[in-house]
Amino acid sequence: MISFRFQQPSSYDTNSKLKAVYLYNFTKYFEWPENMRTEKFIIYVVGKNDNLVTELKTLAGKKKVANQDIEIRNSANYDASVLPNIIYFGPDIIKPVSAAAAKYKNKGALVVAESAGACKSGASINFVTLESKLKFEYNKSAAIKAGLKTNDDIKAIAVSNIE
Amino acid sequence: MSHTNNIVKILLLSLLIGSAKELSAQFETLARAQTLLNTKQPDKIDQAVLAIDSAIRHKDTKGDFISWTTRAFIYYEVYKRADRFRLNSVLRDTIISSIRTSDKLKPDSTYQAFNQKLLVSLAQGYYNINIKLLQDSGDSEKSLIAYNRYKNLYKEIYPKTDFRAKDIEYYLAVSTVYNDKYSKDSSEKTISISKKAYEKVLEIDPANRSANLGIGLLNYNEATVLIRKLEYEVELDQIEVVQDHVVKLAKESEQYILKVYNTNQKDAKAVEALYYVYRMLMDKVKFEDFKKKCSELGIVVNEETTAQQK
What is the ipTM metric for this complex? Predict the structure, then answer.
């Protein structure tokens, strides 16, 4: 008889794909200031997450934000000299979130984090896990402070809205 | 089929012993058919077919089990040449009906044994066809027909045969073939055949390691494919729908794999699979726990994130 073989479990990181899809989708709900729409659309990942960076690079190779090409940057620690369109702080990176929110005030950078209480520390969006699913909290005031024009449709999709 | 060759020689011998009395013309035809059969040469076998078909129609020989068993053996030679890998074969049907007629004529123990051995060979033939259908064309429906015919024929001879182990082997083979197919086509039809095969195994043996792990991995990998196929520009509310489906599959997967893990907590395959399942379910505590267990068992896994800066 044919000898039995198992399937291998896929090592594909589904969470990174979901985050990449979310990050790209957020671009539909915000309008960046004019000066942030002229060169490349920079998504800056803070923290070591090779799978997410790879996923975002795949995205950057296929998609644009309006007419802007997407560029992915990554560093283990927060580098304040980078001025991104979106900055994503990896899980449990909380300390630099408030510094980044202050630094990017009116500069047009969407601060996305993944830590408890990040929206209260100045992040516009905070990824949370609810019932084994990736969802997000939204802080509209933080987005406005960052110099972004907002679309309230995102409030309906957010799991909670934090002011 | 060397045993069938020996049987053919014995058939001839038994007829020659019987020929001590004067043979009628039809008994001579029958003897001729057996002599031709014994040559094993295709052209002679074709002549044997004509001779035996004449013998089984004649009043002197049609009621003799020897005629019908001889006919079965002659047709078996033609069948081996032309039809042995055909699921549906008129030649095979002729052999079986000849054996059944011989059996109705109450053959002696020698001929009864001949008939049984020929049926076993035909049953084995169906088994070989089922494997060939799975391997060559991946046709699970036809393969199942062949497999069931194998069992039915075999049961005619050995009614008390316990097929549970064989059934498990068969359904695991089906799942293996369809798993390979799924890794290439990611089709729902393919995965559903594989899942049904695993479910059949679990009906027979609910604790079967291969089936529990297999179906668990299948569910997990199906969930992975759903996320992999997700378009970057999908609407945010659609992500929710996909995630609902993914979580359902991952939780099903967890239940099957846990059955294996709870039996043997050092089962590397189960430990590795649970690491990935808990990563998919975003269960940080269990994910970290199984990451540690993987490391203890020397399993290298794809890691997600290490926060550098707090």
Answer: 0.92
